[in-house]
Amino acid sequence: MSSYSNTARVNEARRVAIFGGTHGNEMSGVTLVNLWMKNGIEIQRKGVEVKPFITNPKAVEKCTRYVDTDLNRAFTPENLSAPTGDDLPYEVQRAQEINRMFGPKGSPEAYDVIFDLHNTTSNMGCTLILESSKDYFNLQMMNYIKKAIAPASCLVLLNEHPLLKYSTSRSVAKHPVGLEVGPQPQGVLRSNIFEAMRVILKHALDFIEMFNEGVEFPPCSVEVFRVSERIDYPRDANGNIIAMVHPNLQDCDWEPLNPGDPMFQMFDGKTIHYQGSGTVYPTFINEAAYYEKQQAFVTTRRETLVASSIRKA
Amino acid sequence: MEHIFFPPLSRIAVCGGTHGNEMSGVYLVREWQKQKVDESGALSITTVLSNPPAVNVCRRYTQTDLNRCFTNALLSSPITDTTPYEMRRAQELNAQLGPKGSEKAMDLLIDIHNTTANMGLCLIFYSSDLMMLHIYKYIQSKMPSVPVRAIIMDIPLSEAFSLESVGKHGFAIEVGPQPNGVLRADIFNLVKKSLDLAFEWIQEFNSGCTFKAGEVEAFTFVKSVDYPRDPATGEITAAIHPQLQDADFKLLRRGDPIFLSFSGETVKYDGEDNYPYFVNECAYYESKTAFKLAEKTTMTFPSISVKN
């Protein structure tokens, strides 16, 4: 046993929320949450209140990512503390409402855990998104989920980057968990993607139930992919995209990208190569929603995080 | 069948962004406009971004589907203050590239589309256009590494509602799978290659080659199948079954699974053996289509050559 192994006492997770439709055209979450709002028996667990919730109903109705502004970037301190008013963008009003219902963010009254369900057009498979490398509760939960679904894979993306991290809807909770499953086109519901997300949530809720019952989870190591850099498409002087993700990189999320490897293909067929200093692991490769955010893909570095054992306080 | 003569083709239109979120056509047209591509050999090429407002917001359409606005009836209806944008735009495109059915129309109109369905490369055209069967056969023979299929619409041109019906000859290139709003290099490369091959064929045709009679397999629409829905709310209650997902053009037999309900039940196909296509096409949720069904037929065509 290492010197890490003082057991961390963490409060029971009594209040849990499952968010769907944070982006209105990411159909797995919309469908699952609507299903569970009609009949929540599948998500009931002893000793915990689990609330399914559609975060962006107007975007869901229009089957669009957002109406005025991206809800999953809207939970900034400025937005949350702005005076309420009808002139605020729809999603900022929603962020304030969600912060009232499930927060306030950063306070003791905030929900214990929020699962935020997303899809991506990238070939990321099942991905759990972690916002803090020190959240041992989340690390233990993610370790539990990975082991439970093995040999199927579920990778962990850590976004703790000071410039690239963003204010998500789930960040209102003490333990925010992003679920990102792809590839799935916007507006489309694929059965395999839907069922994969459903299974991950099942294991996540099982973990919470066991934790609340007093189970101690021993120290664990979790491999994570830490967000490193955002890479944009090559653009011309007017900001128009002049190259596409190279066929050799397309769909190769999580596979090593080495200096000199093909990265983009120009419209005339010419190849642009990756010029970084070392091997990186790209992800969010060719996500539809990120063209407007100047992101063709994001690079990550592999790291092993260690979580101490945890038990309920 | 008797040999047919056709006049030469010299004015070609290439259209993209008829649906503003189908990115291959959007980027191809933009690139050709940037490079000022207006000819290929002796062919004059006109590139058109069909629905610019929809392209700007990366949506299929702004008020109504542009690619349903080209029937003769709709093209001649009067424009009022309440006429949706796309209906006005259709009449503008008809004036620019048509008028449909007249001598002034483009010799060939090619409209580029993408689908979220796993359809590979499909050429969509009308049964009345025997020249198209030759172009299809040519493209298919020169692209052996991808599935190239023909979907033939057996409707009179006056009732044809899509943009390509405006040209004297016309076809849509439909390539998938590609999500809306995404530009995949492999799909873009397929579109570009099929256009290059079409131009190659046209140049050979114009130079006097005789193209022999023959036959080719093609698919014709039979019917659409909707998702299972809750009778009270109309909401969808099942997803396309994993065995049907991505299985476009694989024969569907009675008893094969087609839907998997959210509560875990399998719904089986209860019809004649047919070929599913547009399986889980995003845009068709709105038009209550989970997939379409086609019959496979053999189309015979006569030999053809140019007559100046």
Strand-helix topology:
The complex is a heterodimer of chains A (313) and B (308).
Chain A: E1 8-10, E2 15-20, H1 27-38, E3 49-54, H2 57-62, H3 77-81, H4 90-102, E4 113-119, E5 125-130, H5 136-149, E6 154-158, E7 175-182, H6 191-213, E8 220-231, E9 243-245, E10 262-266, E11 271-273, E12 281-283, E13 297-307, E14 310-312
Parallel strand pairs in A: 1-14, 2-3, 2-4, 4-7, 5-6, 6-8
Antiparallel strand pairs in A: 5-7, 8-13, 9-10, 10-11, 12-13
Chain B: E1 4-6, E2 11-16, H1 23-34, E3 39-40, E4 43-49, H2 52-56, H3 72-75, H4 85-97, E5 108-114, E6 120-126, H5 130-142, E7 148-153, E8 169-176, H6 185-206, E9 214-225, E10 238-240, E11 257-261, E12 266-268, E13 275-277, E14 291-301, E15 304-306
Parallel strand pairs in B: 1-15, 2-4, 2-5, 5-8, 6-7, 7-9
Antiparallel strand pairs in B: 3-4, 6-8, 9-14, 10-11, 11-12, 13-14
Helix pairs in contact in B: 5-6
GO cellular component, one term (chain A): nucleus
Binding site for N-acetyl-L-aspartate (chain A): 65, 180, 290
EC number (chain A): 3.5.1.15
Sum up the structure in keywords.
heterodimer; A: 313 residues; alpha/beta; Aminopeptidase; N-terminal domain of TfIIb; 2 domains; 9-stranded mixed beta sheet; 3-stranded antiparallel beta sheet; 6 helices; 14 strands; 23% helix; 26% strand; B: 308 residues; 10-stranded mixed beta sheet; 22% helix
Task: Please provide a written account of the structure.
The complex is a heterodimer of chains A (313) and B (308). Chain A has helices at 27-38, 57-62, 77-81, 90-102, 136-149, 191-213; strands at 8-10, 15-20, 49-54, 113-119, 125-130, 154-158, 175-182, 220-231, 243-245, 262-266, 271-273, 281-283, 297-307, 310-312. With 313 residues, chain A is an alpha/beta fold. Chain A folds into 2 domains: 8-224 and 307-312, Zn peptidases (Aminopeptidase, 3-Layer(aba) Sandwich); 229-300, N-terminal domain of TfIIb. In chain A, helix 5 links the parallel strand 5 and strand 6. The mean pLDDT of chain A is 96. Chain B is of the alpha/beta class and 308 residues long. In chain B, the strands form 3 sheets. Chain B has a 10-stranded mixed sheet with strand order 3-4-2-5-8-6-7-9-14-13. A 3-stranded antiparallel sheet of chain B has the order 10-11-12, with no helix packed on it. In chain B, strands 1-15 form a two-stranded parallel sheet. In chain B, strand 11 and strand 12 form a beta hairpin. Chain A binds chain B through residues 31, 34-35, 64, 121, 183-192, 194, 240-241, 244-247, 250, 265, 267, 286, 288-289, 291, and chain B through 27, 30-31, 34, 59, 116, 177-186, 188-189, 235-236, 239-242, 245, 260, 262, 280, 282-283, 285.
